[in-house]
């Protein structure tokens, strides 16, 4: 992958790519921890620099849901979207229902040639949503008055 992107193959680059591959949507701290499993002496700055370089050549995708730190993933180029839990910030990939960007038609494009619609689905994951388990009996509601 690095060679195709015409980047020199260095150990930090390989370690960062495989860390992001193993930990999709990880934040920088998590990636640094994983990289240090392979390269114990790598500096924060080196990992930041590699993340920036790999993102700029398109080998990594950087996502930053509102209120979250930047996160990285190795799944690039397929216009997939994300679903984010408002409570615990769990993130999952969601395949685009349309396929190719932009997957939403602007009601007024203002003359722009639009190449992407950024979609993030927000909600509560099954662990955080109250009463989300269909097998669980409804809690008895006491009207109380
Ligand atoms: Zn959650
Ligand atoms: Zn993703």
UniProtKB/TrEMBL annotation:
<keyword id="KW-0805">Transcription regulation</keyword>
<feature type="binding site">
    <location>
        <position position="88"/>
    </location>
    <ligand>
        <name>Zn(2+)</name>
    </ligand>
</feature>
<keyword id="KW-0804">Transcription</keyword>
<keyword id="KW-0408">Iron</keyword>
<dbReference type="Pfam" id="PF01475">
    <property type="entry name" value="FUR"/>
</dbReference>
<dbReference type="InterPro" id="IPR002481">
    <property type="entry name" value="FUR"/>
</dbReference>
<dbReference type="InterPro" id="IPR043135">
    <property type="entry name" value="Fur_C"/>
</dbReference>
<feature type="binding site">
    <location>
        <position position="128"/>
    </location>
    <ligand>
        <name>Zn(2+)</name>
    </ligand>
</feature>
<dbReference type="GO" id="GO:0000976">
    <property type="term" value="F:transcription cis-regulatory region binding"/>
</dbReference>
<comment type="similarity">
    <text>Belongs to the Fur family.</text>
</comment>
<dbReference type="InterPro" id="IPR036390">
    <property type="entry name" value="WH_DNA-bd_sf"/>
</dbReference>
<dbReference type="GO" id="GO:0008270">
    <property type="term" value="F:zinc ion binding"/>
</dbReference>
<dbReference type="GO" id="GO:1900376">
    <property type="term" value="P:regulation of secondary metabolite biosynthetic process"/>
</dbReference>
<dbReference type="GO" id="GO:0003700">
    <property type="term" value="F:DNA-binding transcription factor activity"/>
</dbReference>
<keyword id="KW-0963">Cytoplasm</keyword>
<keyword id="KW-0678">Repressor</keyword>
<dbReference type="GO" id="GO:0005737">
    <property type="term" value="C:cytoplasm"/>
</dbReference>
<feature type="binding site">
    <location>
        <position position="85"/>
    </location>
    <ligand>
        <name>Zn(2+)</name>
    </ligand>
</feature>
<feature type="binding site">
    <location>
        <position position="125"/>
    </location>
    <ligand>
        <name>Zn(2+)</name>
    </ligand>
</feature>
<dbReference type="InterPro" id="IPR036388">
    <property type="entry name" value="WH-like_DNA-bd_sf"/>
</dbReference>
<protein>
    <submittedName>
        <fullName>Ferric uptake regulation protein</fullName>
    </submittedName>
</protein>
<keyword id="KW-0862">Zinc</keyword>
<dbReference type="GO" id="GO:0045892">
    <property type="term" value="P:negative regulation of DNA-templated transcription"/>
</dbReference>
<keyword id="KW-0479">Metal-binding</keyword>
<keyword id="KW-0238">DNA-binding</keyword>
